[in-house]
Amino acid sequence: MLAEALAGLVFLPLLVACALLVMPRRTRLPLVLLGILPLPLLMFPVTTAVLADGLQIIAVAGFERPLGIEWRVDALSLVLKWLNAVIAVLVGLYALADYHPGSGKGRRFWILWLLLISALNALFLSSDLFNLFVTLELMTLAAIGLLVIDGKPAALRAGMRYLILALLGSMLYLMGVALIYAAAGTLDLYQAGGLLADDALPIVALMLMTVGLLIKSAIFPLHAWLPAAHGNAPGPVSAVLSAVVVKASIYMIWRLWLWFAGDWSMDWALTVLGLLGAGAILYGSILACLQDRLKMMVAYSTVAQLGYLMLLFPLFGVLGFAGASYHLLAHGLAKAAMFIAAANILKGLGTDRMDRLDGTDRKLPIDTFTFAIAGISILGLPPSGGFVAKWLLLQQAWGQAGWGWVAVLLIGGLLAAIYLFRPLSRLCARPLAAPEQALKSPGKAFSLLGLLLALLALGMGFAPAPVMDLLLGGPPPGMAP
């Protein structure tokens, strides 16, 4: 049952995307629903297997490594696959408001969307360095196609910048893979990690792959493509980019440093990666405070929040791993909700400029409430998933006497309060500004999808035990409490 469920997670969206190319118009909507709605159901047998027996390894077609391909599911990949499934369904349903499969543009959107979901599921299963490259490229190309789907000039410029930098990152990563294969004679990430030590060639390969992935995950100072891409993409695309797509590259960085090179003596490199995270938190937060558009503020907030995921490296420990992983999940849900709310505000008002948002809570109460609830988790206030994640990171930093990292976490929280309360003060401002000509709104049902995502992020603070037990029971090898 496990193998069938994993195959369904990868191949069901892929096959539906292919079917959309040839099926008549009237069958496209049921096909799209068939491609996304079963994904959470397919996650249950996978979750049951991991909870019962821990790490699950499936040899595809029965061929063992290194000749065959293995799929691996552990606590970290399970959490990300759940995030991908939830975003695929809830944000996907939201996307139906603008991209009905019956239209030509809608069909193109859903082909790319399903390819993106399939590539992400395959990436979170892969244990082979080259298969990780292939799935990462499929994900990137689908994401760029979604970014430019409306053909707007700003989105096209952002998409071209994303494409160029992504190709540079891919080239660097592939160069590192070639060096690893030359040194180890295998592309299996875990097998190669057991064969190689921290010698010159493996270290150079690791650095090349890391820099390439840092570009793709938009970690400061290699973040140039992210704000424009997220700020100018269609609402559902911004949501999936921030919630899952950029996390996939960070997931790969974690795999390389904590599994592949986990026993190498490279404490200096872990500190450097942590400093990049600290720079992202401070720089992204300051730039978010200075934005005059709501979506651009949310985009720069993503730059800042991704920095917390890089603090896992200097805060090396079980609590740090659990906190960073929990932040990855809570941020994905909250940021998807926030981008949906921002997109609805842009549709309803015809603008997302900060100085034109006064009184929006009267016109769009659900979306304003969604933005506020999501902001609670982004800010890290209790009770929310963001609070649990940042509290665990603070505990790890305090336990290591890492006072600099404690300061970064606290200052990041204060800056988040500034950039989040600024739009909220305008959304709820009185008196109501002169009304703008309203554009077509997606309706309350679609707004409620964003609210549901925000409530899930909030609910993670009320019931963290199931996910936390899973993460604490499956840290990287050699990680001490």
Report on the architecture of this protein.
By secondary structure, the protein is mainly alpha-helical. The protein is globular. The model has no long low-confidence stretch (mean pLDDT 88). It has a domain at 281-481. Helix 1 (2-20) packs antiparallel against helix 3 (39-53), helix 3 (39-53) runs antiparallel to helix 4 (75-95) and helix 11 packs antiparallel against helix 14 (318-349). It contains 20 helices and two strands. Strands 1-2 form a two-stranded antiparallel ribbon.
Descriptive keywords:
481 residues, mainly alpha, 20 helices, 2 strands
Q: What is the radius of gyration?
A: 21 Å
**Uncertain residue segments:** none
How many beta-strand elements? 2
* Percent helix range: over 70%
User: Could you say which overall geometry the principal axes of the C-alpha atoms support?
Assistant: globular
Number of contiguous helices = 20
Strand content: under 5%
Average pLDDT: 88
Q: Structural class, from secondary structure content?
A: mainly alpha
Straight-line N-to-C gap = 34 Å
Lateral strand order in the biggest sheet: 1-2
- Helices and strands, in N-to-C order? HHHEEHHHHHHHHHHHHHHHHH
Q: Biggest β-sheet, characterized? A: 2 strands, antiparallel
Quickly describe the structure.
By secondary structure, the protein is mainly alpha-helical.
Summarize the SSE layout with pairings.
Layout: H1 2-20, H2 28-36, H3 39-53, E1 56-59, E2 70-73, H4 75-95, H5 104-123, H6 129-147, H7 153-184, H8 189-195, H9 200-216, H10 226-232, H11 235-260, H12 267-289, H13 294-310, H14 318-349, H15 360-363, H16 365-379, H17 385-399, H18 403-427, H19 444-462, H20 465-472
Antiparallel strand pairs: 1-2
